[in-house]
Write a structure and sequence with these properties.
By secondary structure, the protein is an alpha+beta fold. It has six helices and 18 strands. It has helices spanning about 25-30, 80-95, 115-130, 160-170, 185-240, 245-315; strands spanning about 5-10, 15-20, 40-45, 50-55, 60-70, 70-75, 100, 105-110, 140, 155, 175-180, 320-325, 330-340, 345-355, 360-365, 370-375, 390-395, 395-404. The strands form five sheets. The chain has a seven-stranded mixed beta sheet, with helices on both faces. It has a four-stranded antiparallel beta sheet with strand order 15-14-17-18, with no helix packed on it. Strands 12-13-16 form a three-stranded antiparallel beta sheet, with no helix packed on it. A hairpin with a 5-residue loop joins strand 4 and strand 5 (about 60-70).
């Protein structure tokens, strides 16, 4: 497939794109008409078809992805949102170009795109592989309709008529398809939920800390006042030595001093309790952050192991045959299967009759995940009066079969 991929957007240092070429004017126009958080933008420029995606971020930033096809038209666009959303999710998890901040907002974290060459190569591979899975829905690009201006545009929402949207993509200069909800993957929602909860807990801890600090300051102020009371008592005690007739007042003063000392002791105990509570809250906050980091690291490891396992399963047996039916009149062998993942594979069909004569045919088929069915033409010359044994192979491995 002749395809070129682009990454562009408004990041920390302003507008940047990679590769940096003449297309910047086209991508800036993509964003000028962005009316929702996510939208597809399809642009025709002569024999080139631009399939772009805009995702608005916080802080008036945005990120854009685009795949340019030469001479080819995509007849199904309902899977493009899912493809681009999965790519955005992987970029957030990687955290090299965009990531979630502590408030659960998606923000950019790069100044110059060329400094993240390894991340850009991964992005190029993800987009190319995603469009290769859509190869069965590609046709040759129809001739240009000169009755419509190159900069003409139409707007749709995702639920509008698909045929009308596809017609607009190759007859108008720009076609905008908007999506107002459901633009985060489950993985993104999970991370955002964790960050939002942790940020909420952090705010609550900070508010509790501020309250404790106010109580602590008030306690220190009261303690200082009690010290002044103690000094006054000492002065009065000195005067009482020469003023024996004021003995009763001296006794009252001593009683007041005793109460003051008790109050000071009580306040100091309260201060120690508040200080211990503050330390426990601080340690709890620190432990919570460490637990979150460990869970995040474990999740990344599990996701990588699951991805490797899926690749090994997909390479050996991308689908499971559940049953076959052969139509002698049409010569087609139909089989029901459960697809492990979306892919395209080459399979071999062998048909043996009761005399041992075999027929062999090879075919490329598009496998879709979940319960599905597919048909492969074998031969119309098979004798319906005889029984035949059919085998479905991937390479030299038999993955299904039946007798008819």
């Amino acid at each position: 497939m002749n395809a070129t991929t682009y990454l562009f957007g408004e990041f920390n240092s302003g507008y940047v794109q990679y590769p940096d070429d003449y297309t910047s004017g086209i991508f800036c126009k993509f964003y000028e008409n962005a009316k929702s958080i996510t939208q597809l933008v399809i642009h025709r420029d002569g024999n080139l078809m631009y399939y772009g995606y805009i995702r608005k971020l916080e802080q008036e930033h945005y990120i854009g992805l685009c795949v340019v096809l030469n001479g080819l038209l995509l007849t199904r666009i309902d899977g493009l949102f899912s493809l681009f959303e999965k790519v955005i999710s992987k970029l957030i998890i990687s955290g090299q170009l965009i990531h979630f901040n502590e408030q659960g907002e998606i923000v950019s974290c790069v100044e110059k795109l060329y400094t993240s060459k390894e991340e850009l190569d991964i992005l190029d591979e993800l987009l190319c592989v995603g469009f290769e899975k859509l190869e069965s829905h590609l046709i040759s690009l129809p001739a240009i309709s000169y009755g419509i201006f190159k900069d003409s545009s139409r707007e749709f929402v995702l639920d509008d008529d698909l045929e009308e949207i596809i017609k607009s993509t190759h007859t108008n200069g720009y076609t905008f398809i908007y999506k107002s909800k459901g633009f985060n993957t489950n993985q993104m929602n999970s991370y955002k939920g964790v960050l939002t909860r942790v940020n909420k807990e952090k705010k609550e801890l900070q508010e509790n800390l501020e309250k404790l600090q106010k109580v602590y300051a008030e306690t220190l102020r009261q303690k200082k006042q009690y010290k002044y009371v103690f000094v006054l008592f000492v002065v009065l005690s000195g005067c009482a030595i020469g003023l024996f007739f004021l003995n009763d007042n001296l006794k009252m003063t001593r009683s007041a001093l005793s109460r003051a000392n008790n109050t000071i002791s009580t306040q100091m105990d309260s201060l120690d309790v508040l200080h211990n509570n503050y330390k426990k809250l601080y340690d709890g906050h620190k432990e919570l952050r460490q637990t979150y980091q460990k869970e995040r690291e474990r999740r990344v490891i599990v996701e990588k192991e699951l991805e490797n396992l899926n690749k090994r399963i997909l390479n050996r047996q991308p689908f499971i045959v559940k049953g076959t039916t052969f139509d002698f009149h049409s010569g087609y062998l139909k089989f029901d299967y459960y697809g492990i993942s979306d892919t395209t594979v080459t399979i071999n069909i062998r048909a043996y009759n009761e005399n041992g004569t075999s027929y062999n045919v090879s075919s490329n088929i598009a496998i879709e995940s979940g319960d599905n069915s597919a048909s492969v033409y074998v031969s119309r010359s098979l004798d319906s009066g005889k029984w035949y044994s059919f085998e479905i192979l991937k390479g030299n491995v038999i993955i299904g079969g039946d007798r008819h």
